[in-house]
Amino acid sequence: MTTSSIIFKFVAFLVISSSFSAHVLSEQNTLQANQTFRPKEELLKLRKIKGYLKKINKRPVKTIKAYIFLILCFFSRLRKLYSLSPDGDLIDCVLSHLQPAFDHPQLKGMKPLEPPKRPKANDSMSVMEESLQLWTVSGESCPEGTVPIRRTTEKDVLRSNSLRRFGRKIRRGVRHDTSSNDHEHAVAFVNGEQYYGAKASINVWTPRVTDQYEFSLSQLWVISGSFGNDLNTIEAGWQVSPELYGDNYPRFFTYWTTDAYQATGCYNLLCSGFVQINNRIAMGAAISPRSSVNGRQFDIGIMIWKDPKHGHWWLEFGSGLLVGYWPDFLFSHLRGHASMVQFGGEIVNSRSMGYHTSTQMGSGHFADEGFGKASYFRNLQIVDWDNNLIPLSNLHLLADHPNCYDIRAGKNNVWGNYFYYGGPGRNSRCP
């Protein structure tokens, strides 16, 4: 064994040992702080959180870990020795039939369904460079028969205002009128017909989010019901949410609700509902690479559609990676079809500093700045009653505050229906 090899292994051992020790001490100190001189209410809260974590974090057959990002940068040879995820996540490989979905009373004892027939495309669409997920850069994946689940930690839950709110959107997650609250949108939508799915390629950026309790997302919505308490939605795209994830990475996410975000539904796999079948995609995991201004552009493909045979709503990520499905019994109106499809961006403006937030939507640039600066959606399509992917007609545009975030649409032979959208938030015209 050479001297350099010995030194490398020794330094690597010290780095991992010190980071692991620091992690353990940090956890011990956190636990002691949580348990010292804490009122009964706080202790009860902590017990509830631990109970929730025990329920949601299933026993893995394998865990893909990250101790420190610098190890990957300076000791890339360690990838051969350890399974590392550079975004700091713990990815648990859980047996498919033990994932959170099967805690649902109507799914207990069942197994994931076989893939359905994919919607038929009538024309070929342009292909650009795709983004993937950071946890897979080491070449790791979960074994067949398991699904990758981002582990939820006590720190994740404690960032939320309450355990009840954790993993859930507050109301007004859908844009449908001209009034405004703390959620602001720039969206394109179609309505007035029966829709059985939607597809788009979504440009990926890392927008600045200026407050822990704000977020910035880009997604598509499949919607049915009125905009009262019976609202049904299925949502998927990418988001930056420091409160939910503890960082500013753009992350692949899903959401669903059947009662206007009141009691049902959640992000990703944080409750029973969505059934995952894919062992290569982790919901809530960071996306990489991301686009840069005047640099290379990356996007992710998202398709949601209703299986004509069984009626469940399926999700596809990227070029044909089938992620899983939402069982039809989760919904009321969406058991039949959608009545609206939306595409676009949403931010939260908490006005925590007393004026409009500087949280960015998309790239943080306005729509008229175009390719390489503004963020885009391209190849917008919907799924019809006969499981065909078809172009949109009667596309409507809506921006709550166009001086803060705006949107502009177009159509060509390469991108089909597309639009640019986004903005910087607070500026001279958006005080």
From TrEMBL:
Keyword tags: Signal
Record-annotated Neprosin PEP catalytic domain positions: 177-431
InterPro entries to which the protein is assigned, alphabetical: Glutamic_endopeptidase, Neprosin, Neprosin_propep
Pfam families listed in its UniProt record: Neprosin (PF03080), Neprosin_AP (PF14365)
UniProt entry tagged with the keyword Lyase: no
Residues annotated as signal peptide: 1-26
Protein name from the UniProt record: Neprosin PEP catalytic domain-containing protein
Taxonomic lineage: Eukaryota, Viridiplantae, Streptophyta, Embryophyta, Tracheophyta
